Amino acid sequence: MLTTNDVAKVFDTILSTPGMNEIVKIDLKISRKNVLLLNHVIERGLSAKDDDKSLSLLGSVTEESLQELKVLADECLQKAGLIELSEKLNTLGDGK
Predict the structure, then answer these.
(1) What does the CA dihedral 41, 47, 50, 52 come to, rounded to 10 degrees?
(2) What's the superkingdom here (predicted)?
């Protein structure tokens, strides 16, 4: 059975193969509900504590890649017209 460290090494190897940094265009059509959920999942993963990240595959991802993922999540919200709604939902979730 593979350990977390072994899985992280395999994941890191896959991410460093030739062509993985190439830009691809994805024509994606999803509902606003799923855009909101996708954004939430990305935000939740990116805001995980460092201890949690070291136990997951995110521990082996560069800070630059994490930032690109954050930008992607924000762009999806913007294109779906859900930035304001997302901010309000985050405020509710924070208990403010």
Answers:
(1) -30
(2) Bacteria
